[in-house]
UniProtKB/TrEMBL annotation:
The keyword Signal applies. It comes from Chromobacterium sphagni. SUPFAM superfamilies: Porins. Keywords: Signal. Residues 1-23 form the signal peptide. This is Porin domain-containing protein. The keyword Signal applies.
Length: 413
């Protein structure tokens, strides 16, 4: 841990002496510098990450804006070699009219309010190289799309047209959080996997689409959602012939869902539910090899929030059922229970967050404890402890891990 602390302290010293920005200088930009340095329970480096982000807004008039968020990053220890994020985190043209707002360009769209659990949040694929670990702030992968939102009385209609297709970023076979899965099973058997042509931005038939209707009925906020697009994981399908071989290809699916949010005394109750059709699952064929099939997947979440400054409490129950087994030996049923506690102190300069998740179906637990403190108006220091224990079938791609890391974040404004 000594090297971790020394590295973070050196970066912190440089950030502390950097000149602060003048909040009244009229510049619509901000510079963010961030580092995370971590070690696991064995005393070896678990993460070395550096990130620079430049945010800017150019406004021609009250109706037209150009928004950008450009990133330069360098990350080691999670996988073989050095990883760099896509440099464009956000780049879009914003139009704000009397009835409608249009955002066209690279962006993220979040449906639903589930904390670290995905029910309605299906628009953007994910960076799963840290699995359930790490900051979820940077896990969603931006997509080029046209996002139109129009107010209709007390209601709102959102239309998404998404030409770009990206898939989840998974760890490599040498990555810290890699688990074999179907691809590993084929590799162990020496079965080749060929790549096929993927969806193209130049073919409108390959585009993804989404629609959300939101409104309020008495004291209940609700949304109705529909999405038709490519599954975030590529499908592995056998190629007919005398020699066993597979091909990696994109597969469509359709999702319907909605959400409800309502106050219940001092609490806020939330519910989300989806039904997805043509979800790829894998059985076993006569040769003992994986065989993909379509399935229906029902997902739901119930949650309660309670806030009494400076405290915030949250509990969530997540359930997912698939009409067939996900893969040999893995059940299509998932049940999870999560708890979250946050508290601020010293006039919001400090924050403590505790997040715990329990997989009921495959006994396992995940625990994250994070503390952060604003050293001044520009510089924030943090310490995070994370632990996962139990079945490695839980939480998706995961392996048992205990780690601690320190972080420093500098904001020009």
């Amino acid at each position: 841990m000594t090297k971790t602390i020394v590295t973070a302290a050196a970066v912190g010293l440089w950030l502390a002496v950097a000149p602060p920005a003048n909040a009244d200088d009229g510049n619509n930009f901000n510079l963010l510098l961030e580092t995370r340095q971590g070690e696991n329970a064995h005393g070896t480096s678990a993460l070395q990450a550096y990130r620079l982000q430049l945010d800017g807004i150019v406004e021609w008039n009250p109706q037209w804006k150009l928004k950008s968020s450009l990133v330069a990053s360098n990350e080691n220890q999670l996988d073989v070699g050095t990883y760099h994020e896509q440099p464009v985190h956000e780049l879009l043209l914003n139009y704000s009219g009397q009835a409608c707002t249009v955002n066209a360009g690279m962006q993220q769209v979040v449906w639903g309010q589930a904390d670290r659990l995905r029910v309605l949040d299906v628009i953007n694929p994910m960076n799963l190289r840290e699995s359930y670990f790490g900051s979820w702030e940077h896990k969603r992968l931006p997509l080029a799309m046209v996002n139109t939102e129009c107010g209709i009385g007390d209601n709102a209609l959102q239309l998404l047209l998404i030409p770009q297709t990206r898939f989840n970023e998974d760890p490599s076979p040498a990555g810290r959080f890699w688990t074999p899965g179907i691809a590993g099973l084929l590799a162990n058997k020496g079965i080749p996997v060929q790549s096929t042509s993927l969806p193209s931005e130049g073919r409108p038939a390959d585009w993804n689409t989404g629609i959300q209707w939101s409104g309020r009925l008495r004291n209940i906020d609700y949304t109705l959602n529909a999405y038709h697009g490519w599954q975030p994981e590529k499908q592995l399908a056998p190629i007919p012939g005398p020699i066993p071989q597979f091909q990696s290809q994109a597969a469509r699916y359709t999702l319907w869902g909605g959400s409800l949010t309502a106050p219940v005394g001092p609490l806020v109750a939330r519910a989300e539910a989806t039904r997805a059709s043509h979800v790829t699952v894998y059985g076993t064929n006569a040769l003992g090899l994986p065989a993909p099939a379509d399935a229906t997947q029902n997902t739901g979440l119930l949650a309660l929030d309670y806030q009494a400054e400076p405290w915030f409490f949250n509990v969530q129950y997540f359930a997912q059922d698939t009409s067939a087994d996900l893969s040999p030996g893995i059940s299509g049923r998932q049940r999870m229970l999560t708890f979250g506690i946050r508290r601020s102190f010293l006039q919001d300069r400090g924050k403590v967050s505790l997040y715990s998740a329990y997989d009921i179906e495959h006994p396992a637990s995940y625990l994250s404890l994070e503390t952060s403190y604003d050293l001044n108006q520009n510089l924030q220091a943090s310490l995070t402890l994370e632990n996962f224990d139990g079945s490695e079938l839980s939480f998706g791609r995961f392996r048992r891990e205990k780690r601690a890391f320190v972080g420093l974040k500098y904001s020009l404004k």
